[in-house]
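_Backbone structure tokens_
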Amino acid sequence: MSDAKDERRPAGELEAAVMAALWAAGVPLTPGEVQTGLASDLARTTVTTILSRLYDKGVVDRRPQGRGFAYHPVQDAPGLTARRMHTELDRDRDSDRETVLARFVAQLTPDDEQLLRQLLEADE
């Protein structure tokens, strides 16, 4: 028998699973519906807590439904990833933004670097 503490998953993993369920549904879901969609042993209260945290972060929006809320993502997966990248870049205003961006670009794969070049050139 395993210890319940050993079965705990990181919050980011749970948030990602909840977001995946919301994106897959394509319609606002209640915490109970998200719980069913996850096909896991998470308690509905845990799902509600995750959704509340995502709401506080501005990642999902909610509307009243019954005695609770139904939640929906405010962006698709690529939009959320871009938002996270901007958040990280803006996190430390005292950092050398040029160096951060240069190191990011230096770590891109050749294919990603070429794609980035094409996207930047398309804006010109």
